[in-house]
What does this fold into?
Amino acid sequence: MAVQFLRKASVWLKKRKITLLAVSCMGLFGGNLSYHVFPEQTFKLLHEGWSEGQPAELSQRLHSLFQDVLQDTNVKSTDSYRAFAASGFHPVSAGIPWLPAGSLVGIPPNFDSTAEDKKGIVNHVVVINGKAVDWESSDGVALREALTFSVKAQKFAIAREVMYLRNSSPLASAVVAPACLAGTFFCGRGIKLLLGLSPGPVILRSICNVITAAGGLMFYYISYEAMTYHLDCKADRKAATISKDYARGGIEFYDKILARNRILRGLMGKEGKKIYAPSGNLFPRHWFRIKYTPYTYRRDLIVNILKELPA
It folds into this structure.
């Protein structure tokens, strides 16, 4: 009974390979885009900051700063970009500006701090290894300084998120997985035809399928890393070329991220050394995947852009 069922299922699958491939690709594309299509219902709930049991409100100063950035980046449809108070230490974003739901940019509480007024940082509790950071200790003071950005750096950080969304980067990132899946499928078929394995033994076809799938997975990892690298650098470049002030803000932003990561590396002990490199970059999650565009490279990119900008 089971053998007959498997045979029928195999025949059914062979007849509908292309249909199943199309459905799988659409499912991957839709899954990758889900929180960009519905950012309010998904992304915002994950990244929203909370204060005293309620969603945190974005200050009037940060609202004004966000509108200034939209103006500097020449955004025509400002209603398509909305800001909210986010958790974490630097801005985050999601959405597709030209869809009805628009896009969201999350601005963290430390952006409410200035060199004169540290309330956006010291009013929040940061817990590391089960202990709250003492903002008056030497490490606390150093971390507080690394989390305090000038207006130029804040504008750059927000502008790069706006540029990332404006470039339709979520769409470009989402298309990598289905494209690699389709490519792997057709490569597998081509290799079997080329080697004459289609009418051959099942075991040889199975070995070919496994090798092709492994190659396709590795190609996906490489393609996704390359796409992430390209989109990050493109957003940084466009934000930095707005003006010299934005470029200087970008250098400060990445310098302070690197400084923050070095401080966290020390505060977190063994766990910190697994996550952060001595330079302040993030270590790869796996030996064969970079996963993140190095902050040192992004800073150096903006340093070179600043040199090229007219006086």
About this structure: The radius of gyration is 24 Å. The first strand starts at residue 50 and ends at 51.
